[in-house]
Write a structure and sequence with these properties.
114 residues
Length: 114
């Protein structure tokens, strides 16, 4: 699993995106207790806030699946294709260098890469 940073997706507007993330974080600590109190008054069940959280978690899981997981299926296939191509190129490059050394032809690579 690849770790994502804000800078990976939004390099020109890093400050704005970080501010929005901070705002959502602050609202996440302020709004849920109020909603828990409203749900408790409405349901009159002490565990109603956990029922509400259960619903929020399910909505989050569904949104995460529809936006990220289905997108990753195609990305992983393309990443595997790129890895195979790079491996083939590396093998071709190594074979070319070995042939050049055998024939006495110096390669144009710096000494650290030879």
């Amino acid at each position: 699993m690849r770790v994502k940073y804000v800078d990976d997706d939004f390099p020109p507007s890093l400050g704005v995106v970080t501010g929005i993330v901070g705002l959502v974080d602050a609202l996440g600590g302020f709004v849920p207790p109020i909603i828990f109190g409203i749900v408790l008054d409405w349901q009159d069940i002490n565990s109603s806030c956990f029922m509400f959280l259960h619903g929020v978690v399910w909505v989050s899981l569904i949104l995460n699946y529809t936006t990220e997981v289905r997108h990753l299926d195609g990305t992983e296939r393309s990443a595997q294709r790129v890895a195979r191509t790079m491996s083939k190129r590396r093998c071709d490059h190594d074979r070319h260098r070995a042939t050049a050394r055998r024939d006495g032809i110096s390669s144009n690579l710096p000494a650290t890469q030879q």
